[in-house]
Amino acid sequence: MELLQPTVIDTKAISAEHPEDYFNTILSSVNDHIVRIGIMTEPYFWHLHPNSDETFLVLEGTLLIDLETGTIELQPGQLLTIPKNMRHCTRPGGERSVNLTIEHKQTETVMG
């Protein structure tokens, strides 16, 4: 059995390479979960995930996460997990937000 070699992923370089309003891609997988980088300058739609929690880790800027009960503000280095079935909407707290998102590989998204 051949072992996979570890790969260094430079999130700062990825952030610098993507000045567009919205960018979201898978960076890595860990067992049955994926790690995504999300770059946003506009709000994402209200949605929920019926089969997976979703964890956010802010790398750059401020991330605002709107919930039905209020808004949570995350700064670089802060992490928050949204439980499955909880409606939420993410948006940058300034001009731009860069975040890591960790979720199950088979995550379903329900808009609205």
Automatic annotation (TrEMBL):
One of its GO terms (molecular function) is isomerase activity. Keywords: Isomerase. Residues 46-95 form the Cupin type-2 domain. The keyword Isomerase applies. This is Mannose-6-phosphate isomerase-like protein (Cupin superfamily). It comes from Mucilaginibacter lappiensis.
